[in-house]
Amino acid sequence: MPTFSAYDGTKIAYHVFGEGPPGVPPVVCLPGGPQDSVYLGDLGGLSAHRQLVMLDLRGTGGSAMPADLASCRCDRLVEDVEALREHLGLDRMDVLAHSGGANLAALYVGRHPGRVGKLALIAPSVRAVGIAITGELRLEAARLRQGEPWFPAAFAALEAIVAGRATDDAWQAVAAFSYGRWDEAAQAHHAAEDEQMNSEVVAAFGAEGAFDPDATRTALARFAPPVLLLAGEVDPGAPPRAVAEFAGLFPNAELVVQSGAGHFPWLDHADRFVATTAEFLGQTPARRL
């Protein structure tokens, strides 16, 4: 597992999947959570089309816990991404971010816009740009699953969460909504989550001061390169209407809603996900330092 040193000496790990076409640089992938990037796998086989570099954010996966936990705040992680770019010897890179990683990607674009070629945001969180996701919007996405045998209990739990009556049991009950198929593979994927996350790192990521939505919106409005935003049709975590609003902040963005997908669309229908993302990413000529 390769590593590099961040600005403060913290050892940061990353994982490489695939080889990619000759002369084509890797796609840097930012996980959500913050969570061990292992949950991304190779994004359903995307590594057959482009080499993928999966970053373990500090305090997760193979990366070290920093001496200063506050350095795990999202805006401060931007310089870890920049250090990775320099470590890889890339003048410019394509970036793919999932869920909470989209916040980090948005902040990186705001600070280093000339370093990003193409940007793919998958089931993105919208915290960094200040988009409000109402409870009704989440319930609307969840109602699309009403034919599932587990729906009544899960929907009741989601209603309780939306109403401010969240419990640990309720959060466990709504997990099925994050997947297009609540099968054994999805259940195993979800069960591994607790071991892949550190609650202190998660809290630090979104701590006060992490986000300045107005400034980020202004920066994204000036970002001209191509952007893909991919939403899962049935995902209450990143409902398509909220992702569409996010897409509207960019001057050159495409919105794709993957049919039947939840929050992890590469698990729900790998071929469909890979076809969409591989076509968007294409084969970008290498630009190395």
TrEMBL record:
GO terms for molecular function: hydrolase activity. Keywords: Hydrolase. Residues 25-269 form the AB hydrolase-1 domain. SUPFAM superfamilies: alpha/beta-Hydrolases. GO terms for cellular component: membrane. This is Alpha/beta hydrolase. InterPro entries: AB_hydrolase_1, AB_hydrolase_fold, AB_hydrolase_sf. It comes from the Bacteria. Transmembrane segments: none annotated. It comes from Streptomyces montanus.
